[in-house]
Design goal:
This is Cytochrome P450 monooxygenase trt6. It comes from Colletotrichum higginsianum. Its cofactor is heme. It is a single chain. The chain is an alpha+beta fold and about 160 residues long. The chain has one domain: Cytochrome p450 (Orthogonal Bundle). It contains 4 helices and 8 strands, in the order E-E-E-E-H-H-H-H-E-E-E-E. It is globular, with a radius of gyration of 20 Å. The model has no long low-confidence stretch (mean pLDDT about 85).
């Protein structure tokens, strides 16, 4: 979800009345404001090798940052490096008082669905293609290219 988010942006909000920022700039009513969540997730100042998928990325973050802290500081580091964590650098489930209250349920559902798929299906690209197909962008939404083929085969037998 960090490498290939569903949307390049997050927190789309329509300004209902003119809003003055601390620098004096005013955002007029009717304007849509949003946060560039995709750019944040790809920021090298926040994530080492942001364009590279690392299935142990958050585990390593918990281990390295957690080893430098103790007590409640360590607990905070561990809590902020979980799939359901919300922070300025992890906006998948929102942030602050508007964070998704169902994110804990959603995380468990995602894990169960992925476990079921991995246990019961073989998934690969056809004809020896090893690279992931590029996403298609429609406005701010990102999705897999529906014109590309993916081979899905049910694994026979008991596991």
């Amino acid at each position: 979800m960090r490498c290939f988010p569903l949307s390049a942006v997050s927190f789309q909000r329509k300004v209902l009345k003119p809003f003055a920022l601390s620098n004096g700039q005013t955002i007029p009513a009717g304007v849509i404001v949003e946060v560039p969540a995709g750019s944040i997730a790809a920021d090298g100042a926040i994530f080492d090798n942001p364009g590279e998928f690392d299935h142990l990325r958050y585990y390593k973050m918990r281990q390295s940052k957690g080893s430098q802290a103790t007590g409640s500081a360590k607990a905070e580091v561990v809590a902020n490096s979980q799939f359901v964590s919300v922070s300025e650098s992890s906006l998948t489930f929102g942030y602050g008082r508007h964070a998704c209250p169902g994110r804990f349920f959603a995380a468990n559902e995602i894990k169960m669905i992925m476990a079921n798929i991995l246990l019961h299906y073989e998934i690969r690209n056809p004809d020896g293609v090893t690279e992931r197909h590029k996403n298609v962008r429609t406005g701010s939404q990102l999705s897999p290219d529906h014109t590309k083929r993916v081979m899905i085969k049910k694994i026979q037998g008991d596991i």
